[in-house]
Hints:
- The chain is built from eleven helices and 17 strands.
- By secondary structure, it is α/β, with parallel strands linked by helices.
- β14 (343-350) and β15 (355-358) form a beta hairpin.
- α4 packs across α6 (183-197).
- The radius of gyration is 24 Å and the shape is globular.
- Bound molecules: zinc ion.
Amino acid sequence: MATRRRVKKRGGNKGLIITILVIVLVIALVVAFVYFKYPDTFQGILDSVYSTNKTENTTSSATGGSGVSSSQNSGVINLAEEDCSVHFIELGNDNAGDCILVKTGNTEVLIDAGSKSNSIDTISAYIDKYCTDGILEYVIVTHGHEDHIACFGGTASAAYRTIFDRYICQTIIDFPLTNSTTALYSRYLAERNAEVEAGAVRYSALECWNNENGAQRTYQLSSTVSLNILYNYYYEHHSSDENNYSVCCLITAGTHNYLLTGDLEKEGEEYLVQCNDLPQVDVFKAGHHGSYSSSTEILLSVIKPQIVVFTAVMGKYEYTTDINNVFPSKTACTNISKYTNNMYVNRYYDSATDTTDSYNGNIVIIANSSGINVICSNKTDSITESDWYKTYRA
Length: 394
Ligand SMILES: [Zn+2]
């Protein structure tokens, strides 16, 4: 009797078990379909789940919350295959300038190589920590000013080894127009052309935008990371200001965005907003090192940045003796502070000793499926916490 009851019971549950199995199978098929057919959507769902948890975990972070976590690491950062890391490199001298390394998997993009020719060993030592095969898959040169091309053009000395001499640069993307007539710019052209002779391909940013002559508007760096060349009106129109010729790009990593506009000025930013469908961004490299003539409300109101990086020496009288124009400018800081207090800078100037030193140092911003992480080689404080900012910029 007991045996029959058990058999009967199992028979009664059979339909329920099959139903559960079918439901599980259907869910698995739907998940697999979305994963393979719409990887970005899948990533987005994952990100929203993770970011919900992350906000709870990082509200007490040094940068004041907003889902941004920060930490200090002066050594080599351990990067995962899925990470998209953007490194704003401290350039080894007292001058503002750009040199930005983007890395995902084994693909590296170098954007500019300033600030002075003597930055080369600092830059090279940094790149070597993360680029182990000696190949820079993409090199972007935004415009013809020294603080962006110094280490591409080098010096007149035959012994100087430029970025092009030190690395195999596969695809070079640079500015279509320039007013530059400097010796450095001539050396840049010679070095770039020699790299092309050696097998590199070179496109202007306008060719990229137009998808012509083999150039592409979008380069897929991995399954989730893309490099997108944006349209800048001054790729094909004259400007008296060299800065406006800057190559502008958007790096998209899953649902996260980084906007890099070189030294683009106010009028260039207006066209940038008009001519591109710009998203909100996690990270904005403040145009022209935080000049009063960039980071305008018209751009910021569209991109609503969560983190802003100044590639500058905070408080140093570099080009002007007017405190209101010193990088980062009061105008830019005021505009940016409407959107975020997460502001970082490579170095700072100490007026008491007339010397400069690391503020955040090398600033690395990593995007992956668990959110955005800021890692600084020096302290992680936002500049809004500095005495200089409180005195001159707040
Ligand atoms: Zn510059």
